[in-house]
């Protein structure tokens, strides 16, 4: 009826961090479509019974279980990526404390320059305005 709603949900275990956001958004959209279709189908079946209906319920239940499993896998992947990124940043700061201080100071100077130039132009500065450029 809905075809293979799990198509494209296979995980990408390449370890690459480029394009993670777009792959994540695509996976989440596919997962949401799968869950939505499964829920619609279960609602349409209602309290119907029969061999075909029972088989359909079993297929929908399997689809939902697979979708939840993939979601859990993606959450684990995201958690691992975040932990690795934090560890790398922590290692960098511990190995290069003065460089990290200089980078932080440079970012602070850039934000201060941006804020002061906006104030000189006569516009009010909000924190969210700094990211509108």
Verbal overview:
The chain folds into two domains: about 1-95; about 95-133. The chain is about 70% helix and about 0% strand. It has helices at about 20-45, 50-95, 95-120. Helix 1 runs antiparallel to helix 2. The chain is elongated.
Write the layout of secondary structure elements.
Layout: H1 20-45, H2 51-95, H3 97-120
Key phrases:
71% helix; mainly alpha; disordered N terminus; 133 residues
Shape: elongated
Flag low-confidence runs: 1-18
Question: What's the β-strand tally?
Answer: 0
The arrangement of helices and strands along the chain is: HHH
Query: In whole angstroms, how far apart are the ends?
Result: 47 Å
Overall mean pLDDT:
75
Percent in helix: over 70%
Strand content: under 5%
Please summarize what this structure is.
The chain has helices at 20-45, 51-95, 97-120. With 133 residues, the chain is an all-alpha fold.
């Amino acid at each position: 009826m809905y075809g293979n709603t799990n198509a494209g949900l296979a995980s990408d275990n390449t370890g690459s961090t480029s394009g993670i956001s777009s792959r994540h958004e695509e996976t989440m959209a596919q997962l949401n479509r799968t869950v939505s279709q499964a829920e619609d189908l279960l609602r349409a079946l209602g309290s119907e019974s029969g061999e075909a209906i029972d088989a359909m319920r079993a297929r929908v239940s399997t689809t939902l279980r697979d979708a939840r499993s993939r979601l859990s896998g993606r959450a684990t992947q995201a958690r691992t990526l975040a932990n690795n990124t934090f560890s790398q940043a922590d290692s960098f700061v511990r190995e290069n404390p003065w460089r990290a201080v200089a980078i932080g100071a440079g970012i602070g100077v850039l934000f201060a320059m941006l804020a002061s130039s906006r104030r000189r132009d006569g516009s009010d500065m909000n924190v969210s305005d700094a990211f509108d450029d």
